[in-house]
Write a structure and sequence with these properties.
Layout: E1 29-34, H1 39-50, H2 63-71, E2 75-82, E3 85-94, E4 100-107, H3 116-125
Antiparallel strand pairs: 1-2, 2-3, 3-4
Helix pairs in contact: 1-2
Length: 126
């Protein structure tokens, strides 16, 4: 197995007024919280969004592990669709100190470079 060096970067926004929102008015673009997400759908999103970025941490998770993770009260999963097709997602984790971490965020490859990321990131940040 080949190993690669990874750099993980964290950004912090302490004041909501620092956000420069970039919303889309396109009615075909929707973002909704997923309730009771099937583990197979979660895995599909994780694999498709993360494959070009070498996301591997959760690949070995079983359906039961995914379901238990998503059942945690501090975890929420949000799906972006475009014309009813999955375009991207983000996963939020509420922390004990009251902050919220964007734990996972990304677009499916066919939606990259089309201006969707800024709308998705605005929604995740809000």
């Amino acid at each position: 197995m080949t190993t690669i060096e990874v750099t993980r970067t964290y950004l912090e926004m302490r004041d909501h007024s620092d956000l420069q929102p970039a919303h889309s008015d396109d009615p075909r673009m929707q973002i909704e919280q997923l309730q009771d997400c099937a583990p197979s759908f979660y895995r599909q999103l994780y694999v498709e969004v993360g494959k070009n970025y070498h996301w591997i941490d959760r690949l070995p998770w079983t359906d039961e592990e995914i379901a238990a993770h998503l059942a945690q009260l501090e975890i929420s999963l949000w799906l972006m669709t475009y014309d009813r097709v999955s375009a991207g997602y983000f996963e939020l984790r509420r922390c004990e100190d009251g902050s919220t971490e964007i734990a996972y965020f990304g677009l499916l490859p066919e939606f990259i470079g089309r201006g969707f990321g800024k709308h998705l990131l605005t929604s995740a940040t809000e």
